[in-house]
Amino acid sequence: GEAFSAHRARAYLDDGHAVICAAGTGSPFFTTDTAASLRAVELQVDLLLKATMVDGIYTADPKKDPGATRYEQLSFDSAIEQQLGVMDLTAMVMCRDNNMPLRVFDMFAAGALRSIVQGEPVGTLVEV
Q1: What φ, ψ does residue 49 adopt, rounded to 5°?
Q2: 114 has pLDDT over 80
Q3: What share of the chain is helix, strand, coil (3-state, %, to 5)?
Q4: Strand, helix or coil at 3?
Q5: Would you say residue 1 has pLDDT above 80?
Q6: C-alpha distances in angstroms, 52 versus 12, 44, 106?
Q7: Is the pTM of this model over 0.70?
Q8: Where are the domains of the chain?
Q9: Is the dihedral of CA 24, 25, 28, 29 positive or negative?
Q10: Among the CATH numbers 3.40.1160.10, 1.10.3720.10, 3.30.1660.10, 1.10.1660.10, which is that of 6-127?
Q11: Where residue 3 falls among pLDDT bands split at 50, 70, 90?
Q12: Which residue range or ranges hold the Aspartate/glutamate/uridylate kinase domain (predicted)?
């Protein structure tokens, strides 16, 4: 890999390449969620992908509450108001305020990333 440069990353995207941003910003007080939101907004991508250990966002923790149901779609305001713990508040507000859609999905589900790229409704979509 190489050190992040928004200009260089945007040039790669404009040339049709995929750009994967991993880790944080190297700045204290920035979570990896906030770093991901920042990079997504900075690069003006179409969608921020959050790969997790569950297959989306639920009404409650599905490991603790067998009655929890998965949202197919959700607004940022609703996720924030319900304190669903999708991402930290700074990251959620940054996405909301910059109209950056977010898709939360299970990183261990076979074919999930391919399905998302092909436009299939995998996991939970969070929008303004």
Answers
A1: -100, 130
A2: yes
A3: 35, 15, 50
A4: coil
A5: no
A6: 26, 22, 5
A7: yes
A8: 6-127
A9: negative
A10: 3.40.1160.10
A11: confident
A12: 5-106
